Write the structure tokens for this entry.
Amino acid sequence: MGPGPSNVDPRVTAALAAPIVGHLDPYFLKVMEETMHNLRLVFRTKHHHTIPMSGSGSAGLETIMLNLLEPGDEAVVGTFGYFGERFAEIARRAGATVRVIEAPLGDVIAPERFEQELRRKPAKLVAVVHGETSTGALQPVQELADIAHRHGALMAIDCVATLGGFPVEIDEWGIDAAGSCSQKCIGSPPGLGPVTFGPRAMEAVRARRTRPTTWYFDLSTLFQYWGEAGGAKERVFHHTAPISAIYGFHEALRLVLEEGLEARWTRHRAAHDRFSKGLERLGLTLYTPAAHRMPQLSVINIPPGVDGTRVRRRLLDLGIEIAGGFGPLKDKTWRVGLMGYNARPEPVDRLLGALEQVLRQERD
């Protein structure tokens, strides 16, 4: 029950055990098509260029930066925690000149700061983390896309922690590129990095002055395998796709849509509310200000005099894993994920009961 990976639905586990076929087998090509279609529905987009990258969520984010940016480009990246800083570093490694807009840990960035920065100097790309899993803070992004487009920039988001558990409206918000992961709210094992690229983003990819510095994440060759819009051209080998991982992801997406996105968002919110009330009963507080909290990831202040590492070890003895804080929040916070299959009353109550038991032992 840390920030991911989370437990998966038993039906996803069963899908992982399906027989292996070749990565160009007609059956697997059909699974790929269905996966792309369902992933578009979860991203709430009609963008054709929507696939699960072979690699973790980090692979998806590298795909965004290494395709949209090239040496000499300007990028504005919002940071308010570890993963925002990492997003900025990936942009630097793509060769871009990166201007960082920073907010204190636990806070989010006011949209007008992006407006001011772009008015001062244009940029090719604006990028920000939607849900910062190091602090539990949720950044509003819809207004940022409007600002970016008004100043001629593309808008990209890291929705690794939010997709499938909180509203992510790619088309309605005008997001040009987004990257997520398989192992959090979507509810399948780690190993895939879902991405989506809209028409403006793909225009920028086709207009590059130089080839991307990556071969593996190069969109122009990837879609020779995944298929361009229309699907008439024969698929060609690019890499050996992780067949079993895509089976599991395919099933997880089916379960998301079977439940309904709105119902799933409501379930994640209800789990968070139940957990928050339980923490209050135990005398524990959340690090993130209430106005900025995302429901699927709770960052808990470790009480004075409590050994946070020992508490986590004792929870492990009871079969429950949570995570500690890192960076400036190391040894000061715990991080608890209520994501996907775990966003239910039973796991919440089990964790609260275990926390109560362990904290009593800690204080005795």
Notes: The mean pLDDT is 96. The chain has two domains: 10-258, 261-363. The chain is about 45% helix and 15% strand. Residues 261-363 form a domain with the Aspartate Aminotransferase, domain 1 fold (CATH 3.90.1150.10).
